Amino acid sequence: MANDQELGGLWCHEILQGLSDYLAGDLPKTQAAQVDLHLTQCPHCTQFGADFSKLLKQVQSLSKPPSLSPEGQAALWQVLTHGD
Amino acid sequence: MTLPTDTTLLTQVAEMGDRAALGQLVARHQDAVFRYCRSLCRDTASAEDALQQTFLDLMQGAGSFKGQSSFRSWLFTLARNAVHRGARLRAGEPRAHVPLDKLGVLAGWGEDPEQAAARHLDQRRLNLALDALPPHSQEVLVLRDLEGLSGPEVADLLHITLPAQKSRLHRARLELAAELRQSQSPRSEPPRSPEGAHHGQ
After folding, report:
1. Which residue from A28, B127, B134, B192 could staple onto B197, CB 3.0 to 4.6 Å apart?
2. Radius of gyration of chain B, Cα coordinates, nearest whole angstrom
3. Per-residue confidence at B164, pLDDT binned at 50, 70, 90?
4. What are the extents of the domains in chain B?
5. Check: CATH 1.10.10.10 for B100-200?
6. pLDDT tens digits for B18-45?
């Protein structure tokens, strides 16, 4: 990270390491406040944090990938009921 | 009308061999189990085999479910065991370990905001990117972000600690972002396939 800098008591690489926990609200309050402070001063982390958050929401909200084919469903049910 | 819970249906399967109850459980969960098996297996046929084995194990082991974990967590454990027993695991490409800060840059840290904004995520691109991830990364992403299992459930399923699960998930998310960024650059437009990604088969 060429522009890694310490702002608000945290380095950019530390923001990166804890980003999922921060977005999930899993960081302790004091640490979360430090991240907030860093974000107010660091355009790179602010931008990346927003993009990363957006990506996670998209991944979680996209319809699930197409799944079991009708043939697969029929084969499953045949296996489960075979011999009855 | 309230639908019966999974555990109620499972009890009916265990105590009465209730085929209708089994059918409801299959209908509710076959796609999620298939997706999970597909993330671990090398091909769709192997995933279907593992899926069948999972529900056979469910039928035979229905009485052994004690409610110590959630039904879904138990079911995914059956699926994981079925995949491993069948030695159907996909090998995955060996990869050099990329330090997290470098992975962050590959995922777009420090990137021009306009470039980031120009990217578009759709189902096909997500499937392709997911398939390109190492198996461990794909597995944790599928379980947490697609199927919605909790962190403790996934840690238990994977036999790892909760901090290790969090670390694996975060790295997997960064790998996914890096993969999407790479695949969506103009020079590396992925080839169109009539079938889409493996997940879509």
Report:
1. B127
2. 19
3. very high
4. 6-85, 100-200
5. yes
6. 999 999 999 999 999 999 998 888 688 8
Q: What is the pTM for the complete model shown?
A: 0.83
Token pair for B38:
């597909």
DSSP structure string for chain A: -TT--EETTEEHHHHHHTHHHHHHT-S-HHHHHHHHHHHHH-HHHHHHHHHHHHHHHHHHHSPPPP---HHHHHHHHHHHHTT-
Tokens of A35: 């991240």
Q: Could you tell me how many helices (H) and strands (E) chain B has, helices first? A: 10, 0
Residue B109 in tokens: 């840290």
Separation between Cα atoms, residue B102 and residue B47, nearest integer Å: 34
Q: Flag if B145 and A47 touch (Cβ within 8 Å).
A: no
Q: What's the CA gap between A36 and A34, in Å, rounded?
A: 5
Query: Residues 59 to 78 of B: which have CB under 8 A from any A CB?
Result: 59
How near does any CA of chain A get to the CA of B101, in Å? Answer: 6
CATH code of the domain occupying B6-85 = 1.10.1740.10
Best residue of A6, A55, A60 to probe chain B, by most B CBs closer than 10 Å? A55
Is B162's Cβ below 8 Å from some Cβ in A?
no
ipTM score of complex: 0.88
A26 or B97, which is more confident?
Answer: A26
